[in-house]
């Protein structure tokens, strides 16, 4: 229950709309059948072991922060969201870790100035009913833009949608900067500093695990294929 009490209005609205979408999607028989297959694939034995090792690794890297008072119950929500939105995605894309620029690109992406802006935007949110309107509206416009990009005849529609989305973004950023300028004392706190730094530090410290996963996968593939190569050698 503490997890939900720590969520801001934007995060709550996203969860509410995701739940509504899932319930609506599951009313279709074909979606239910596909969902069962996906769930079975997601919880395959090897993947479950990977998830458990991932959670153990995360617990190990978090423990020193807990000992030194840099992590506690207040950051459970941020940690869970990071695990779901970042760690799992990185684990599913472990094959990219073999790229020589993977570590450099990962660190660079986590230190972009945009991350700071996104962090501040997530601090200052609107009331729940406004967020419940903004979240699906933004998603709908984004989806319509993606569809409009597929055909040149929708060029004028795409321009209009981009203008609407840009206007919404400008209003949001203006609101955030206004709130930040009038409430800087509450913005520049130790908790907010840790809230901002925690996902970046966890992501950087998680990179070795992703690399080791990719290395293990490559060796496993090699050992599986080795008997075949041995047989074809005269």
Provide an overview of this structure:
There is one protein chain. With about 230 residues, this protein is mainly alpha-helical. It is built from eleven helices and no strands. The protein has one domain (about 1-230). The protein has helices spanning about 1-5, 10-25, 30-40, 45-65, 75-90, 100-110, 115-125, 130-150, 155-180, 185, 190-230. The longest helix has about 45 residues, at about 190-230. It is globular. The protein starts with a helix and ends with a helix. The mean pLDDT is about 75.
Residues in helix, %:
over 70%
The major β-sheet equals:
none
Q: Kindly, what is the distance between the CA atoms of the first and last residues, rounded to a whole number of angstroms?
A: 65 Å
Helix and strand element order? HHHHHHHHHHH
Poorly predicted regions: none
Rounded mean pLDDT is 76
**Could you give the count of β-strands?**
0
Strand content: under 5%
Identify the overall geometry. Answer: globular
Radius of gyration, taken over Cα atoms and rounded to an integer in Å? 22 Å
